[in-house]
Amino acid sequence: MTTPGPEPAPQDAGLRSRLVDVGVDLVSREGAGALTLREIARRAGVSHGAPRRHFPTHLELLSAIAHRGFTDLAARVNAIRGDGSTDDPRGRLTRLGDAYLRFALENTGMYELMFRHDLLESGHLRLRDTSLPLFGVLVELVGRVRPDADARAVAAALWANLHGIAQLWRWGSLQLATGAMDFAPLLRTALDAHLGPEAGR
């Protein structure tokens, strides 16, 4: 008869989730540069070697933290896709662009981490399963607005434009250069540049 193994120590229960929770809080407060294994372990109240039981490499822990950000962004996108308020693809793109910029500006540390693919192990923790469908939503809507164009290329250029707006707005550069206090006119201009002027304007 086999003797049952020891029960997991109470402090190990939920350790993986706790480490990610601590990382999410740390990146929101101090940015991606603060996400060291030692600091996350310290704030989680465990030894500096404990995270390696669940995350053998630093990159795997960073990827798990970034996954939370992609999940949050996906929820915002899906709320816009499924609200049933309009089937106008241009209107949805405007709302998605607004949601993307707001997410970037409200979650600056997480946003920085999410798109640092040089820091993440995207394949191992299936980050692509969350991030690529988000890009797919953009491609699908762009294709409906611009059926004459390469929707993937236009969507990529639009995404790069939005990413630049988010970064430069966060640094204060766009406010200084334009005197704008709201990014809405910049979003509208970016959409016009990539999709053509909106009908009726």
Describe the protein's topology.
Elements: H1 15-30, H2 37-44, H3 58-81, H4 89-106, H5 108-114, H6 128-145, H7 151-171, H8 173-178, H9 184-195
Helix pairs in contact: 1-2, 1-3, 1-5, 3-4, 3-5, 4-5, 4-6, 4-7, 4-9, 6-7, 7-9
Describe it.
There is one protein chain. With 201 residues, the protein is an all-alpha fold. The protein is built from 9 helices and no strands. Helix 6 crosses helix 7 (151-171). The longest helix is centred in the middle third of the chain and has 24 residues, at 58-81. The protein starts with 14 loop residues before the first helix and ends in a 6-residue tail after the last helix. 26% of the residues are buried. Residues 1-10 have low confidence and may be disordered.
Average the pLDDT over all residues and give the rounded result: 87
Along the chain, the helix and strand elements come as HHHHHHHHH
Topology, number of strands: 0
Poorly predicted sequence stretches spanning 5 or more consecutive residues:
1-10
- Rg (CA only): 20 Å
Tell me the major beta sheet. Answer: none
Alpha carbon gap, first and last residue: 80 Å
Number of separate helices: 9
Helix share, percent: 55-70%
Strand content: under 5%
The structure class reads mainly alpha
Based on CA inertia axes, which overall geometry fits? Answer: elongated
